[in-house]
């Protein structure tokens, strides 16, 4: 059964997550808090995976797919209206991770899966570019890796684990959520704890 257009993800759904995170006084060192943030991220990645799946299976054409992706991206990457700065920073981390997911999905729809190198090569190139402070190139390489993950390639976890903390590690974290979502696009229930 296909999802009606505009129903992949709503502002209300995103806001429900934000409200819950704000209420719970999130602490990244706490396992339940970390899981809540990961569920927020996975939930948005699942919406992306469902859009891509409907694109590949036919209900959505390229234009409609890109419109749906843009709609979800605008909801998820919008400014957050929360007073607690630490909570805003944590959600900003989730948004940063998801940025690469949206770009990878859009690139996949426009160009298909990248085939100039392996997923590992792209992630390593991204890490090298980040080390040289070329963040545009780093994001580009992560996006290419993301198109491969959408196309069915595996994200090698040993490569991800070797990354130093930074933007590339955050983007790869988002790609990990995307990979999980592509293999099992089950909805994360908002009331799960």
Automatic annotation (TrEMBL):
- Cross-referenced InterPro entries, in alphabetical order? UCP022079 (IPR014518)
Name listed for the protein in its UniProt record:
DUF2150 family protein
Origin species, per record, is: Haloarcula rubripromontorii
> Taxonomically, what lineage is the organism?
Archaea, Methanobacteriati, Methanobacteriota, Stenosarchaea group, Halobacteria
